[in-house]
């Protein structure tokens, strides 16, 4: 049996970052069900830092995290964590007025500028130019090196004396005399504080701890990678989407990654791409771009998990002492990870958020668990 000050469940980006932050304050055990961390949502993202995307609270959390990505701690990573990308939102001819929706998301910190349709066509030559009626450009959108960021947290955890145990699926949690006993595989571990960073399985772990569920809903999203049209260099192309809820595409090495932007509610699972979703995406690409997709593309799916207000949950359970929720990162979990990890360490060790976070409008009360225990539940 291993004991620690803090036990974190789930070694995706959220659990890895929180474990790293907590390891500055005590001993940490990080338990992961899979044989390698990053098998689920963290390894399947679009790897984009999109500062104006998400609820106002999500945007504030991301604004607080930009400094970490631009200037990570010494020894965190050998390579830059962010890469220049930019984001292009297009409106079709006849729908130009709808561009206001995209422009309205801008802030003085992260502007979005209107640009000429001809300039948009030059930036994104893969898009059929006749479909571009108006365009907006967001320079602050960046690529994130997710694998390097994830490894940075895990290696930093190790350097701080923390321990990652893989193939350790948690199956039971019990609290006695102020200590949680956690069963994972054939082992048991103990700690006074447990952090639930189990991604799509957050409510499953919550139920094991006897806590009220947070109505967490995993939603499947599909993506593919395709070769660009012959002779077209796409490496410097921005992220491209049409205004409203549309599929999007971005360079991925020398190829193009595209996603249907689907949000299909599913139970927590090892998500697999649905053939029909892939076919719908290929059809959309053939109608909106110069891509001709002749063979089945490499496809994958991942889960973006939301609670009803679309904000993350980061706080102690009101009824299960020592049980900290860190779930509901939705489609923003990579970019929010450094700040949510800081928030976790601050709430766990001091019970309050640092002044710079409060000054940005981030309040612990907005992150606190929102689940209600059913009447009569013990
Ligand atoms: C297609 C797609 C595109 C996306 N694009 C972006 C993007 O551009 N930018 C962005 O910031 N975010 C993006 N996201 C969202 C981002 O990927 C997630 O918010 C983030 O990865 C969530 O991280 P996590 O650590 O909470 O979850 P996960 O990575 O799923 O990690 C949870 C871990 O908990 C483990 N676990 C579960 N149950 C147990 C148990 N019983 N015992 C032990 N371990 C357990 C799992 O095995 C898993 O490894 C995207 C997601 C998808 C699917």
Automatic annotation (TrEMBL):
Keyword match Ion transport: no
Domain (FAD dependent oxidoreductase): residue spans on this chain: 5-347
ATP-binding keyword on record: no
A GO CC term assigned to this protein in UniProt: cytoplasm
Gene Ontology MF terms: oxidoreductase activity
Keyword set, alphabetical order: Oxidoreductase
Name of this protein: FAD dependent oxidoreductase domain-containing protein
Organism listed in the record: Prosthecodimorpha hirschii
């Amino acid at each position: 049996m291993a004991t620690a000050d803090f036990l974190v469940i789930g070694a995706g980006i959220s659990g890895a970052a929180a474990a790293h932050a907590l390891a500055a304050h005590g001993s940490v055990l990080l338990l992961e069900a899979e044989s390698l961390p990053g098998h689920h949502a963290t390894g399947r993202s679009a790897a984009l830092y999109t500062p104006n995307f998400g609820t106002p609270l999500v945007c504030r959390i991301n604004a607080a995290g930009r400094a970490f990505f631009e200037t990570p701690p010494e020894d965190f990573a050998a390579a830059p964590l962010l890469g220049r990308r930019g984001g292009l939102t297009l409106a079709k001819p006849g729908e130009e007025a709808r561009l206001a929706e995209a422009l309205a998301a801008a802030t003085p910190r992260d502007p979005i500028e209107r640009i000429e349709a001809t300039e948009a066509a030059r930036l994104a030559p893969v898009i059929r130019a006749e479909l571009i009626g108006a365009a907006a450009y967001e320079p602050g959108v960046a690529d994130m090196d997710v694998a390097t960021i994830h490894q940075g947290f895990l290696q930093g955890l190790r350097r701080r004396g923390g321990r990652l145990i893989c193939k350790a699926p948690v199956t039971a949690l019990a609290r006695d005399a102020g200590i949680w006993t956690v069963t994972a595989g054939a082992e048991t571990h103990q700690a006074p504080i447990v952090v639930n960073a189990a991604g799509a399985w957050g409510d499953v772990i919550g139920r094991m701890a006897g806590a009220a569920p947070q109505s967490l809903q995993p939603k499947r999203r599909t993506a593919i990678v395709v070769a660009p049209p012959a002779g077209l260099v796409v490496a410097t192309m921005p992220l491209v989407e049409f205004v409203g809820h549309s599929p999007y595409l971005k360079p991925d090495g020398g190829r193009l990654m595209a996603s249907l932007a689907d949000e299909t509610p599913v139970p927590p699972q090892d998500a697999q791409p649905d053939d029909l979703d892939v076919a719908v995406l290929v059809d959309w690409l053939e109608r909106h771009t110069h891509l001709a997709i002749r063979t089945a593309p490499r496809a994958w799916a991942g889960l973006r998990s939301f609670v009803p207000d679309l904000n993350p949950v980061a706080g102690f359970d009101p009824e299960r002492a020592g049980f900290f929720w860190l779930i509901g990162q939705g489609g923003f979990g990579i970019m929010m990870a450094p700040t949510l990890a800081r928030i976790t360490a601050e709430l766990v060790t001091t019970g309050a958020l640092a002044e710079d976070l409060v000054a940005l409008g981030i309040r612990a009360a907005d992150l606190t668990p929102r689940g209600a225990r059913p009447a009569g539940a013990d």
